[in-house]
Amino acid sequence: MVRTPLIAAPWAGPLWLKPESLQPIGAFKLRGAYHAVASLPADVQKNGVVAHSSGNHAQALAYAARDYGIPCVIVMPDAALPAKIAATRALGAEVVLVGATERLTEAAAIAADRGMSLIPPFDHPDVIAGQGTVGLEILDDLAEVACVLVPVGGGGLASGVAAAVKALRPDVTVVGVEPELAGDAAESFAAGELRQWPLEKTYRTIADGLRTNLSERTFAHLRTYVDEMLTVSEKQIEDAMGRIAVGSRLVAEPSGAVSVAGYLAHREVLPPGPAVAVISGGNVDPSVLARVL
Amino acid sequence: MVRTPLIAAPWAGPLWLKPESLQPIGAFKLRGAYHAVASLPADVQKNGVVAHSSGNHAQALAYAARDYGIPCVIVMPDAALPAKIAATRALGAEVVLVGATERLTEAAAIAADRGMSLIPPFDHPDVIAGQGTVGLEILDDLAEVACVLVPVGGGGLASGVAAAVKALRPDVTVVGVEPELAGDAAESFAAGELRQWPLEKTYRTIADGLRTNLSERTFAHLRTYVDEMLTVSEKQIEDAMGRIAVGSRLVAEPSGAVSVAGYLAHREVLPPGPAVAVISGGNVDPSVLARVL
């Protein structure tokens, strides 16, 4: 893992960026996958790991398995982008392509048949704990932090960061941010119960990493440890991407920029003092990046 | 200063990037300016510092002076970009605008009148030593490094990095890279004597930070500590900028991308094994960045 530094964003205020975009696969996902693999008992770990994912989690798990020298199978929908399949194979994983509806059953079957451990992208305590190291590093590097903003998709990153920050520094405000167009977590938070949005609704946002719903586990974390949920518009996300690139020289993907967008759009509800926005990833289509500059 | 991490560039080979683009002012210049201010005797330091610069050195020196709570005067040509003047003033410096030909005499006059120390952008041992910390960090973070590539403009960064690397690890190859269109250092290196190129010639390159000629001091450093000088085309610079943004999620300015361009274009003359390319800065016109994506 890269020990990502805090990067100043004076153009936005007393704001610092935590660029998880600089991790080897371009996203925070490596932290959780790595910690989940590291936490397996040795006799179980040697049998390898399996996951169903067509996104960053696939590459994160493949990367961790390669480092540990253990087998890794990634189940992907047969409609997955060839580039994502190739990138996962390049990290040494076996990629199994199935119809989109068969992904879960196929991954479970492989786990059972081969004695492999199924590592989900966010709904797992070891994965959440791994993401929490982002929070530990923020507290180490900026003791005077008043507020931490985290993007919310499935909620693994926000759960881990919020749990870590609140355990050590209950006085620090932790804010989750998501797109208005995938505002299931904000709605759940306000309603006090888990609300699932259909994928055809969340797929409207450009922030493709945040279209996922929370699980019961991550929702419970957010309710316990997160102070506030904010939402941002598509325009605010794109504006933030451009300002991050020009002002702090970092490439953020739309999902990664929502935390900064939330800071810029909602400063009046945030505590005064230094804030840290987690840039969750930087895997963006070049044409999208070019458009927002 | 940010302790910049090494960022993997597996898309290029066994290459790591040292992103000085992530320093507060977006360039390595802060290291040298800060070290020069820190090295002044206390009774001299309190009188403040002065420089003539319309570039990153102006902001670097203003930033360092502000941290030390001492006065700072920056002499700029009256044709300097308003954004650069504003950015320097925002860091607390007094900006004095003069005709382009009067910059040196005006800065010297201010130094004499006010008892301020003149801190040049690269032709100064303390400035060079400060830039050298980039080399120390590379050796700390990647002991198995075989080759370090550094952009060459005035030669301050390359002088410092090469001196630091060779002092500790004479087995590591240090390579300077510059644009073909501002190839004065490569020509000087080959000729064994300092060759100055007229500004109307070096101004053809997009790499605006590398249009400067070497000084006798930096040329002496390069001859002693640098193993090889390479040049790259304008197209190679732009290609490298795009690949750095997409592959390693970093915004590099053209001057910052020449080290990566040199690696991609000249791998056959470099030693096998891990290489580090220093990304000297990330202050790029958004329209230029959009074009290369």
TrEMBL record, chains A, B:
One MF term in the entry's GO annotations: threonine deaminase activity
Does Coiled coil show up as a keyword for this record?
A: no
InterPro entries named among the record's database cross-references? Ser/Thr_Dehydratase, TrpB-like_PALP, TrpB-like_PALP_sf
- Which GO terms of type biological process are on file? isoleucine biosynthetic process; L-serine catabolic process; L-threonine catabolic process
Q: Could you tell me which Gene3D superfamilies the record lists for this protein?
A: 3.40.50.1100
Q: Which cofactor does it need?
A: pyridoxal 5'-phosphate
Task: Give the record's family classification.
Answer: Belongs to the serine/threonine dehydratase family.
Q: State the protein's name.
A: threonine ammonia-lyase
